[in-house]
């Protein structure tokens, strides 16, 4: 080959290198940041906001570069399948959605191996005979008053799930009372001001001055975030609530800071 031909060949190769690098960079940027599984099986009361919640998480995935799979098939809770996901999101599950021991074992293995969990609203109205799950969520549902407006005091500043929320957040929802106060084992992110609404549930009680409504905590090797909000369809078009949920998803998926030790204040 002549000297002119060699120079031309080398020049062409040099020009091709940036294009190849650019293509590789673009492909990497387009890769999903992480993958989540939304689970919405119910064996008790079924919230009519579940489809709205699923659609909202799917939209958050599209807008924030993560992949969302959805299911009500509990048999997908097996070791091989759960290993695909960085977080599993229970949207208003009720009753005993994982009714086979093998499904429960697989979910427990998943958390023990560093998996993430997001519980929304009635996720606390599930698994009453499964104490491990109760610990994962943080507290079991007791009762609630009628849907009404209340003020949420945002306590856990500095977390991705609270960064966009006002200190005092007024919103309408179905406000849960819980069978126990989870504070000793979790980082409380938000509490309800019971002075701003009628907190007495249908069983006749309320939680009093310290009424957690959202929290997060490390649990059995994994990461857990729970919010008691999300009963209403309107919640899933509320930008502040969606920011709250998105932060919880990212935190549990390992895609954002998980500053959720009970003693944490940052």
Automatic annotation (TrEMBL):
It holds the Pfam family ThuA. Residues 1-29 form the signal peptide. InterPro entries: Class_I_gatase-like (IPR029062), TAT_signal (IPR006311), ThuA-like (IPR029010). Residues 35-250 form the ThuA-like domain. SUPFAM superfamilies: Class I glutamine amidotransferase-like. Keywords: Signal. PANTHER family: GALACTOSE-BINDING DOMAIN-LIKE SUPERFAMILY PROTEIN, SECRETED GLYCOSYL HYDROLASE. This is ThuA domain-containing protein. It comes from Streptomyces aureus. The lineage of its organism: Bacteria, Bacillati, Actinomycetota, Actinomycetes, Kitasatosporales.
């Amino acid at each position: 080959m002549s000297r002119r031909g060699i120079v031309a060949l080398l020049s062409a190769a040099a020009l091709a290198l940036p294009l190849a690098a650019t293509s590789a960079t673009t492909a990497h940027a387009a890769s999903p940041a992480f993958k989540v599984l939304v689970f919405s099986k119910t064996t008790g009361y079924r919230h009519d906001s579940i489809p709205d919640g699923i659609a909202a998480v799917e939209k958050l995935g599209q807008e924030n570069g993560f992949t969302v799979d959805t299911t009500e098939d509990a048999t997908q809770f097996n070791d091989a399948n759960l290993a695909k996901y960085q977080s599993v999101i229970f949207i208003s599950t009720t009753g005993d959605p994982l009714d086979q021991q093998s499904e429960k074992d697989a979910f427990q293995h998943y958390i023990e191996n560093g998996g993430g969990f997001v519980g929304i609203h009635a996720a606390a109205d599930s698994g009453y005979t499964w104490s491990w799950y109760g610990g994962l969520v943080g507290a079991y549902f007791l009762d609630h008053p009628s849907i009404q407006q209340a003020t949420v005091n945002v306590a856990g500043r500095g977390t991705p799930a609270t960064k966009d929320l006002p200190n005092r957040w007024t919103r309408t929802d179905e406000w849960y009372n819980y069978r126990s106060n989870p504070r000793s084992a979790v980082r409380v992110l938000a509490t309800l001001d019971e002075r701003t609404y009628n907190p007495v549930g249908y069983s006749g009680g309320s939680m009093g001055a310290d009424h957690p409504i959202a929290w997060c905590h490390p649990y059995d090797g994994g990461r857990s975030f729970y919010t008691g909000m999300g009963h209403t369809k309107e919640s899933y078009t509320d930008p502040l609530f969606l920011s709250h949920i998105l932060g919880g998803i990212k935190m549990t998926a390992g895609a954002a800071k998980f500053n959720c030790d009970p003693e944490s204040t940052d």
